[in-house]
Write a structure and sequence with these properties.
By secondary structure, the protein is of the alpha/beta class. It folds into two domains: about 180 residues, Glycogen Phosphorylase B (Rossmann fold), CATH 3.40.50.2000; about 150 residues, Rossmann fold (3-Layer(aba) Sandwich), CATH 3.40.50. About 45% of the residues lie in helices and about 15% in strands. It contains 16 helices and 13 strands. The strands form two sheets. A seven-stranded parallel sheet has the order 3-2-1-4-5-6-7, sandwiched between helices. The chain has a six-stranded parallel sheet with strand order 10-9-8-11-12-13, with helices on both faces. Helix 4 links the parallel strand 4 and strand 5. Helix 3 crosses helix 4 and helix 10 runs parallel beside helix 15. The protein starts with 18 loop residues before the first strand and ends with a helix. It binds uridine-diphosphate-N-acetylglucosamine. The site of uridine-diphosphate-N-acetylglucosamine has 18 residues, from helix 1, helix 2, helix 5 and helix 11.
Length: about 375
C-alpha cells in the first residue's frame, strides 16, 4: 500500500525547559506580521524568540521605520542580502541563513507570508531537519506567474506547522493532501497588529500634511511586477486612475519599484506631477493605517491591504485578476476588478453611489492570532525536561 501523500513527520524535539523559535523577516509586509508574534513569545515563559532580518528590504522607509513604529525588537542577525534577481536573492539568503541555523540550533524556524525570504529560509531549515512554522499558510491565487504563489506553494509543502488565516486556506491545504494535524486555523496576525495600533494611528497628521478630508479621497498602492513592469498594463491602469482623480483626489504612496518605472516611462510632467494623482514616498505604518482608515475607497494590488481594508470597513478595489484572500470578497469588502479601465471605473462609480456598505469581520480576525500560534508551538514542541 502506498503511504498517504503527507504523513506528518516526527518533529525534532529535545527535552528542555525553553523552546527557541527563530523568527524570520525580510520584506515590508513581513514586519506587521512578526510584531505581535515577537511580543507573544516575549510574554510567554518557555519560549525564547530570536529574530533574523534577511535584509531583502533595507531602505529607511521600507524597513527601519516599521521596526520603530511597531516596537519590533532589534534583529539578532541581519543577513543584509539587498536586492537582486529572484534566483540570486533567494540563493544569497539561503547561503547566509544556513550558518545562523547551524549556530543557533533552534527548535523551530518561523516564516511569514510569501516573499523570497519566506521560501529561502524555510528551505534551509527543512534541509537541516529543523521544523518549519509557516504563518499565513494555504492562501492560493492559482496564478503561478506570481512569484508569491510559487513561494506559498513551496513553503507550505515543507512546513510542519501551517498557520492559516481563513477557511479557504484550510480547504486548499486539505486538497493538496497536507496532513490534518499540521493545519491550524488561528486567524490573522496582521490584523492583531492593525487592531493594536488603530488608536495610535488616529494621532497621525498625514491627512493634514496632505491637505485631505476624511472620506474625501482614494488611497492607492501598486507594485506587482505584472502591473508596473509591463508598460502596456501600467498605462491602462493609470488611464483609469487619472479619470478617477478627476472626481476624487487619489493619494499614491509609491513603492521604489513603481517609482523607478514611472520615471522610466515618463509619467511625471515637468513639475514632477502626475495629473491629479498625488504621489508620495512610501509611508510608515501608522500614517498609512490612518490614510486607509479615512479613505472613501482603496485601490490596490497588494495582498495585505485587501485584509486591512476588510477590518477597517473601507471598500477595496483590487487591481489584479485574482486574489489569494477570497474571504475579503465573500464578506463584501473587496472587489477583484483586474486591470481593464472600464471595469475599474464602473466599480469605482458603483462604490461612490452605494449608500450602505456591509462588511462583517472574517472568523478569528480578532487580535488574538499570535497568542493562538504561541499556544500551538508550545503544545507541539515543548517537552518537560
Ligand atoms: C517584495 C515581495 C512582494 C511584496 C513586496 C512588498 C518577493 C518575491 N516579492 O516585492 O511579495 O508584496 O516585497 O513591498 O519577495 N527596493 C528599494 N528599497 C528597498 C527594497 C527594494 O529601493 O528597501 C527596490 C529595488 O530596486 C528592488 C525593487 O525595489 O530591486 C524590488 O524589491 P524586491 O524585494 O525584489 O521585490 P518587491 O517588489 O519589493
Amino acid at each position: 500500500m502506498h503511504p498517504k501523500p503527507d504523513e506528518p513527520q516526527e518533529v525534532r524535539v529535545t527535552a528542555r525547559d525553553t523552546i527557541t523559535v527563530l523568527n524570520v523577516v525580510g520584506a515590508r509586509p513581513n514586519f506587521m506580521k512578526i510584531a505581535p508574534l515577537a511580543r507573544a513569545f516575549q510574554r510567554r515563559e518557555g519560549i525564547r524568540g530570536l529574530l533574523v532580518h534577511t535584509g531583502q528590504h533595507y531602505d529607511e522607509r521600507m524597513s527601519h521605520l516599521f521596526f520603530e513604529q511597531l516596537g519590533i525588537p532589534r534583529p539578532d542577525v541581519n543577513l543584509e542580502v539587498g536586492s537582486a534577481s529572484h534566483a540570486v536573492q533567494t540563493a544569497e539568503i539561503m547561503k547566509r541563513f544556513e550558518p545562523v541555523v547551524l549556530q543557533q540550533q533552534p527548535d523551530v524556524v518561523l516564516v511569514v507570508g510569501d516573499v523570497n525570504s519566506t521560501i529561502a529560509c524555510a528551505l534551509v531549515a527543512a534541509k537541516l531537519h529543523v521544523p518549519v512554522a509557516h504563518v499565513e499558510a494555504g492562501l492560493r491565487s492559482f496564478d503561478r506567474r506570481m512569484p508569491e504563489e510559487i513561494n506559498r506553494v513551496l513553503t507550505d509543502a515543507i512546513s510542519d506547522f501551517l498557520f492559516v488565516t481563513e477557511a479557504s486556506g484550510v480547504a486548499n491545504l486539505r486538497h493538496e493532501g497536507v496532513a490534518e494535524e499540521k493545519i491550524h486555523f488561528v486567524g490573522n496576525v496582521m490584523i492583531d497588529t492593525l487592531l493594536s495600533n488603530l488608536e495610535k494611528a488616529r494621532a497621525s497628521t498625514v491627512l493634514d500634511d496632505l491637505g485631505l478630508e476624511p472620506r474625501g479621497y482614494a488611497a492607492m498602492t501598486l507594485h506587482r511586477p505584472s502591473n508596473v513592469d509591463d508598460r502596456e498594463t501600467f498605462d491602462r491602469v493609470f488611464g483609469a486612475i487619472r479619470t478617477i482623480a478627476d472626481d476624487l483626489p487619489v493619494v499614491f504612496p509609491a513603492h521604489p519599484r513603481t517609482r523607478k518605472n514611472m520615471e522610466a516611462f515618463g509619467y511625471f510632467d515637468r513639475g514632477g506631477r502626475l495629473g491629479g494623482v498625488r504621489v508620495t514616498e512610501p509611508l510608515g505604518y501608522l500614517d498609512f493605517l490612518r490614510l486607509m482608515a479615512e479613505a472613501r475607497l482603496v485601490l490596490t494590488d497588494s495582498g495585505g491591504i485587501q485584509e486591512e481594508t476588510t477590518i477597517l470597513k473601507v471598500p477595496c478595489l483590487t487591481l489584479r485578476a485574482s486574489t489569494e484572500r477570497p474571504v475579503t470578497v465573500d464578506v463584501g469588502c473587496n472587489q477583484i476588478v483586474g486591470t481593464d479601465p472600464e471595469r475599474i471605473l464602473s466599480a469605482f462609480r458603483q462604490v461612490m453611489q452605494a449608500e450602505t456598505f456591509e462588511c462583517p469581520a472574517p472568523e478569528k480576525w480578532d487580535g488574538r492570532a499570535a497568542e493562538r500560534i504561541a499556544d500551538v508551538l508550545v503544545a507541539g514542541l515543548y517537552v518537560e525536561p
